[in-house]
Structure formats: C-alpha cells, structure tokens
Amino acid sequence: MKTLPKTGTPSKDVLAALKARHREDANWKAGRTFSLVYFAGDEVSSLLKDAYTEFMSENGLSPVAFPSLRQMETEVVSMTASLLGGDDEVAGTMTSGGTDSIMMAMKAAREWGRKKGLARPRVVAPWSAHPAFDKAAHYFDLDLAHAPVGSDFRVDVKAMERLLDENTVLLVGSAPSYPQGVVDDIPAIASLAKSRGLLCHVDACLGGFFLPFAKKLGRAVPAWDLSVDGVTSISADLHKYGYAAKGASVVLHRSAALRRNQFFTYSGWNGGLYASPSFCGTRPGGAIAAAWAVMQHLGEDGYLARTRSVLDTTAKLLAGIRATPGLAVMGEPVGGVFAFTSDSLNVYELGDAMDARGWKLDRQQKPPALHCMITPAHEQVAEVFLADLRDCVARLAKGEPAPEGSAAMYGMVGAVPDRQQVDDFLLDFLDGLFPRG
Fold first, then answer.
1. Model pLDDT for residues 79-122, shown as the tens digit of each residue
2. Roughly how many angstroms between the first and final C-alpha of the chain, as a whole number?
3. Residue 281 to residue 301: CA distance in whole angstroms
4. Contact criterion met (CB below 8 Å) for 191 and 158
5. Contact assessment for residue 183 and residue 174, using Cβ atoms and an 8 Å cutoff
6. What pTM was computed for the model?
7. 8 Å CB contact between 344 and 352
8. How far is CA 375 from CA 26, 320, 421, in A?
9. What span, in angstroms and rounded, lies between the C-alpha atoms of 58 and 60?
10. Cβ pair 369, 347 in contact under 8 A
11. Could you tell me the pLDDT band of residue 1, with boundaries at 50, 70 and 90?
12. Which domains are seen in the chain, by residue range?
C-alpha cells in the first residue's frame, strides 16, 4: 500500500519521476495514436500550457471573484454559437467535456419535461449515440430508447418516430457519430421533434469545431447545426478539434429560457447561496483561459489549415484502406473519424498486429472494426501506416499468427450472450485498474 511520504521530495526529482512515467504512455505526438489526443503542433501546445498556467489557481465557480474568466467564457460561448449557426438568442456555458455537455442537455430536457408534468421523461437516441447519453439517463433517472441505424450507419428516423410516446421530451442526433464518423439526418430528426413539440439535441462533440471549416473548404457537409429549424441544443468539444486543453466543451441552447433548465441552485445552505451553471462545482480557470487563448491564436485561418490537413490525410488513408484486399470502410465518413472492418480476417488480430508495430487503434464491436481519429499529427505518417497495414493484412492472410493482444478478449466478450455478464466483467476490470483510486 502506498503511503504519503514522511518528508518532501525535491521538485527536480518529482519532475524526473513524472517524465519517466510519461515515457510509458502512448506516443501520440508522433502520430502513432488514433484517439484521445488532438495535437495541433508545438506552438499551440506551448500557448495552451502558458494560458492554462496563468489561470491555474482561479476557479470559474465564482464569476464575481474572477470576472476575467466570466468574460472569456462568454466570448468562447459567443464565438462557438456564431460558428454553429446560432443567433443572438442562443445561450450556453462551457463545461468540462463532452460527457458534461451531454449530461447538461439531458438534465435540461428532464427539467423541461417535469414542468410539463412528466414524472419520468423519455429520450430517443440513435443506437450509435455516445454512451454519455446512457450515463446521463442513469444519473438523472430518465428513460432512454435506442433507435437502430441503417446500412449507412445513420439512425433510422422512422424507427425513432415509432419509439415516441407521451413521455418523450428529447430526440438526439450525432454530427458525426463516433463509431463510423457519419452524420445523422439532423433536419429529419429536428423536423420530427418540432412537429411533436419536443426538444432536439445534436451531439457535435466531435464535429463542432471541424464540420464548419470542412464546409468552408468546399466539402459536402449535411445540414446539422443550429441553423436547422427544430434543433434546440448542441454540444461541441473544444478539446477535440478545437485543439484546446482538456477539459473544455460548450453546450448551447436555442434560448436562455431553455438553458435555465440546465442550472442548479440551492438557497438553503448555511454556507451561503449556491448556484452552479454546469455539472461541476469547481471549474478550472485554466481550461477556460486555454480555450479562449487557442481560439484567439488560431482564428479561422488556423482552423482551416488544420482541417485541410486532416481532410487530406483522411482521404489518403481511406483510399489506401479501400484498396487493400479484405478491408472495407464502414459508411461514408464526413470528417476525420472513421472505422474499417474485414470480411476475410479477424480484424481484432489485425489490430494486435498493428499494435506490435507501435500503432494504437481503438477496437469496436457490432460489427467488429478498428477505429481511427485523424489529427494534423498523422499527416507525416500516413504512408508508413498504410505500408504497415498492408503488410499485416498480407501476413495474416497467409496464416501467420497474430501477436497476443485484445483479439482473445473481444472474441470471448462477443461469445457471451448475457450483457450483464459483460458489464460485470467490465466492473471487475475497473476494480483491477483502480484498486484504491
């Protein structure tokens, strides 16, 4: 059992220990990792560190004590609303990340429904929607119905309609969905919601700071933002393709009246009056400052340049994957996120083979697939990645054994029909990862 040291350790030794541990982590800076980190270059990283450090101790919980944070948050929200098709009526807040933003949209929908006398409001979301919606339903005691996706991996809007009942308050669409990077038919979802007097949330945590610039670059992007009639809220992560420091996201509502349902207040505490705009109490000032700083630094031109890099790299990777015998891209990805599968190989074994060469690809299920999230860091390694991928595919096709890895685990999980057993396995896995944390 680890205990607190009796005496302090010199700062240089602490930093040396940190750097040693850091060397064990995924090499995202070299473009070897295809999730979790969105690297926009050393200059941006340096700015983020300086901006975050400048406000490292400040707490966004109190806009009275730190008016600078309130002003920066207001400007970040305003710039985001302008980018995402909003008008002067749109209101929002910054949050700690996509899950926080989604949970605030779900909490706002619950309060909106309760004001209409619904004891247990219902949300209808695509099966491909982020698990944060399930998490929010679990936390906030909401019913959540999953609508199936079609052969193009976009949600079946007719199926969504069949899932509506008298308790439904919110319909959800993704722009894009994380698994395959496709954009749901947001106009159809929003139209359905409006025709029934319901709310409509667009999860643009991935696309919020990518799709607007892709469109400016002439790419065909389906309608998806607040300019779509019937969309009432939207979430967009700054720490993804906004290239801000973690954790920073924005949740926007069509009006301040709708946003009001997101807030929490408590006037009965003997410690004073309490008001919180989002899920977290303490709100790190550094995340707010860094988000504001990177938006100021990059501007439209900076975001366009990085979006162009991601689009070009993604096009090269997709073409290479499609040209590799046995591999197939899933759906028609719109941005820098996609998945691919195989009809002739165990795709998890392929992932293990790529892992052995230093490439970290996420695994997906139903159907089995490998997942990629592209950033500007991948521009310099695209050809090397494709060469390794082709070689791994060829070796597996010849019957060479794959390195040990996740294939066995995913094969085992896929063979278990009882999802509760799988959930129990995941709980045990978490217990093992964090025995005391």
1. 999 999 999 999 999 999 999 999 999 999 999 999 999 989 99
2. 12
3. 35
4. no
5. yes
6. 0.89
7. no
8. 15, 17, 36
9. 7
10. yes
11. low
12. 51-295 (3.40.640.10), 299-400 (3.90.1150.10)
